[in-house]
C-alpha cells in the first residue's frame, strides 16, 4: 500500500489530484468522469420526491491519514474552507505519534416499541421477557440475508417509564446487529413486525415502532498521541501548545456553550465523511449530540490530556451508525466512488475511519484556536469565496484576496470596490 502522506497535494490542479486518487483506488476513466459529474438529474429524480435540480458540494480528499496502521485517502464533502486542510494537517501531526488507533462495537442498533394502556407495567415487562426467544426468532425472519451474514436480532430489553405526559408506558428495545448496513429499514421493519405480538403478549396498545438514533450500542472510538515537538510553531514551543490545547479542552469539558462549538468542530470532519459516503448525517448528528448530553449535561465528545512524557493524547468516542451497503451508499454514484477510494471492507471500518477524522478535525481546530487563532488560516480561504461572489475571475481573484487580507477587511462590499478599482487600473494600462 502506498503512503497517504502526500505533501503538496493541495498545490496540484484538480485533474492531477484526481489522477493520484484514481491510481490509489484503481479508478478508470469512467469513474473519473463520474467524480466530475456526480449525481445525474435522472438518478436524483429516483432518490427523492419533487426534484427540480441538483445542489452540488465540493468533494475533496484529506491526505496523511494513518489509522490502525493502514494508510487512507479520505473523501470529504463540505463547503466550509479550512476543514479539509485542517484534517490533513492534523493527520500529519498524529502520524508523528504513529497515527490513529481506532476500534468499534459490533454494529448493533436499537429499535424502540412503545406500549401504552397497560394496567400493570411489571407484569407486562415480565411477559415480554418470558417470550424473548420467540420474539427474537420472529424478528430474525424479516431479513434472512443479514442473519446469514452473522447479524440479526441479538436481545430484547424492557424499560418501564412510570411518568410521562401520556402516563406510564413500557419501552421495548430490540437490539439488532445490522452488519454492513446502517440498518434503519431493517430495524424499523423488525419493530413493526413484532408490534402485534407485543400487543397480544402484554394486552397493551403499541404506538411508536422506530429505531433510536442514540446508537450507543454501536460506538466508535479513536485515540492519537501527538509528540509535543510536532506541535512547535514559529513562535511557540510544542510543550506550551500542548498545555494550551489541554486548557482549551477543559472549557469544553465543563461548559455547554463551548462544548457545542467544540463538538461542531468534530462534526465538521464526521459529517463530511458521512455525506461523502452517502450516509444519513442527520442521524449521526442526532446521535452525537444526544450522547454528548448522556449524563444530563452537554459535554465535549473528545478528551485531550498530556501524558507523563509531555505528549498530547486525544480520545474521541461517539455513536456512529454507518453503512456501506444499501440506501444512498449504493444509489449515489459519488458515494460509491468514495467508498472505493477509502477501500473499506466493513461498516465498522468506515466508522473507525470516520471517528479518527472527527478527532483529527477537533485537533486542527483547537490547535489553531490555542495558538494563532482560527482567523488567520480562515481569512485567505474565506476571502477567496468573497472575491468570487463579488464577480472576480482568473487573476483578479488573487489580487482582490491579497488586498482584503492585508486590510483585514473581508467583506463583499470591499471586494466589489477593490474589483472595480482593479479593473479600472487594468483598463488604464491597456
Ligand atoms: C468552525 O467550523 C469550527 C470551530 O469553531 C471549532 C472549534 O471552535 O473548536 C473552529
List keywords for this structure.
3 domains, 3-hydroxy-3-methylglutaryl-coenzyme A Reductase, Chain A, domain 2, four-stranded antiparallel sheet, binds (R)-mevalonate, Alpha-Beta Plaits, Helicase, Ruva Protein, domain 3, alpha+beta, globular, 430 residues
Give a short overview:
The protein has 430 residues and is of the alpha+beta class. It is 51% helix and 18% strand.
What characterizes the major β-sheet? 4 strands, antiparallel
Radius of gyration based on Cα positions: 25 Å
Helix/strand-derived category reads: alpha+beta
CATH architecture of the largest domain: Alpha-Beta Complex
- Summarize the amount of helix as a percent range: 40-55%
Q: What is the top-level CATH class of the largest domain?
A: Alpha Beta
CATH superfamily of the largest domain: 3-hydroxy-3-methylglutaryl-coenzyme A Reductase, Chain A, domain 2
Number of distinct helices = 17
Shape: globular
Mean pLDDT: 95
How many domains comprise the coordinates? Answer: 3
Strand order of the largest sheet: 3-8-10-9
Oligomerization state? single chain
Can you walk through the features of this model?
The model has no long low-confidence stretch (mean pLDDT 95). A hairpin with a 7-residue loop joins β5 (152-161) and β6 (169-177). The chain is globular and about 90 Å long. The protein is of the alpha+beta class. The relative contact order is 0.13. The chain folds into three domains: 9-104 and 221-372, 3-hydroxy-3-methylglutaryl-coenzyme A Reductase, Chain A, domain 2, CATH 3.90.770.10; 108-211, Alpha-Beta Plaits (2-Layer Sandwich), CATH 3.30.70; 377-429, Helicase, Ruva Protein, domain 3, CATH 1.10.8. The strands form three sheets. A four-stranded antiparallel beta sheet has the order 3-8-10-9. A four-stranded antiparallel beta sheet has the order 5-6-4-7. It is built from 17 helices and ten strands. The chain starts with 13 loop residues before the first helix and ends with a helix. (R)-mevalonate is lined by residues 80, 261-262, 264-265, 268, 365-366, 369, 374.
